[in-house]
Design goal:
Elements (H helix, E strand, L loop, with lengths): L4 H17 L3 H16 L7 H24 L6 H23 L4 H24 L8 H31 L8 H13 L1 H17 L1
Helix pairs in contact: 1-2, 1-3, 2-3, 3-4, 4-5, 5-6, 5-7, 6-7, 7-8
Length: 207
Amino acid sequence: YPTPIDANVEARYKLAQLYQTQKNNRLYLARLNDVIKSDANAAEQRTPRTRYLAGISSLAMADLALEEYQQIKLVEPIKKNLKLKKDKMQQVIKDYGKVTDYEIAELITNSTFKISEIYRDFAKVLMESERPRGLDDEELEMYDIMLEEQAFPFEEKAIDLHEKNYRRISDGVYDKWVRNSLTVLGEINPGRYNKSENEVGYIEIFN
């Protein structure tokens, strides 16, 4: 029953949820993909509800890809595992980018926070990665410096994206993911962002 499109997409989404409770990831992903495709092919019949269901389905798929990224450890062989992790990171970021295309505020802030944390995590695991065997003290020091130089741009990207979420407050968006970004920024720069978070709380109480 391809029409009405709202009922069709809703049924596909409920099927996806059923397979999720059964822990059948293969069919869960397949049904999520059905939701996304059905909404994309709906043309003029597309509705805010089908777009929302497609958006949260896209987010769920990105979240599963994030779990796969997190399972890749930077251990020997470093070069091989670093490439695997970086390639997976880029794919997950692309997946979350697709979520933002739905232009739904709660999904945009969610995806922005998670992309920020992926960059922050990559910088962290890079610095904590297993060192190659056989390095003397001087070579190890140079290797650490090289890692710091590689990690720095990812840290900067993470901060930029968390700040992007923070700036959404001025557009009237202040949800869980904006608060989470504020918390992270408060940890990184407490002098600036802890103060900002207190001010937001004050405004909420008296508005």
